[in-house]
Amino acid sequence: MSPPLRCLRSRRGSAILLATLAMLALIAATTTAFLAVVAAHLQEVRHQRDGVQALYMAESGVDELLDQLATTGAAAPVEREVLGAAIPAQPGVETPPAVRSERLPLGRYRASCRRDGPALVITSVGQAPTAVGPPVERTLVVRCRRSGGAWRVSRWEWRP
To answer: Which is higher by pLDDT, 68 or 95?
Structure first.
């Protein structure tokens, strides 16, 4: 085999190696970009979930005050922390005491009401814990009017 032919084959092998390395670099960059997009989306979904949980907590405060109004005719400000069981109890299955007593916070709410002429305005703030950072907070402002002896919601708005 002549020396120029050997040199040509060596260059061809180098070109294939460089093309393979370039393809691997492109695949690595694409994978990194994809993982970054997935991580950002996951963070957004967690924030939305925590916001919905905070809104549910605020609704709980409104429900409690409306219940007080229906049963006693008056409503005192409330502040509660809502806890959930770590493992739901199953009928016929004994849950160990350590697990039974463990509670996980679902959130908290505080609610109060005030008169605004013939209407009643209930303001309720719900909080949901987050994995990192401060809790997410949502505020509900509910306007109620008396109708047929009971308080009925006439306006419902929430604030982030």
So the answer is: 68
- DSSP 3-state of 58: helix
The type of residue at 158 is W
List, for residues 119-149, the tens digit of each pLDDT value: 999 999 999 988 888 999 999 999 999 888 8
Chain centre to alpha carbon of residue 101: 25
- For the stretch 70-102, what's the b/e string if a residue is b when 16 or more beta carbons lie within 10 angstroms of its beta carbon? eeeeebeebeeebeeeeeeeeeeeeeeeeeeee
3-state helix, strand, coil in the chain (%, to 5): 45, 35, 20
Alpha carbon distance 12, 19 (integer Å): 11
110 and 137 Cβ atoms separated by less than 8 Å: no
The pLDDT value recorded for residue 81 is 86
| Confidence at residue 137, expressed as pLDDT on a 0 to 100 scale | 94
Domain ranges of the chain: 3-159
More confident residue, 82 or 119: 119
Q: Residue 96 — φ and ψ, nearest 5°?
A: -60, 145
Instruction: Count the residues in the chain.
Output: 160
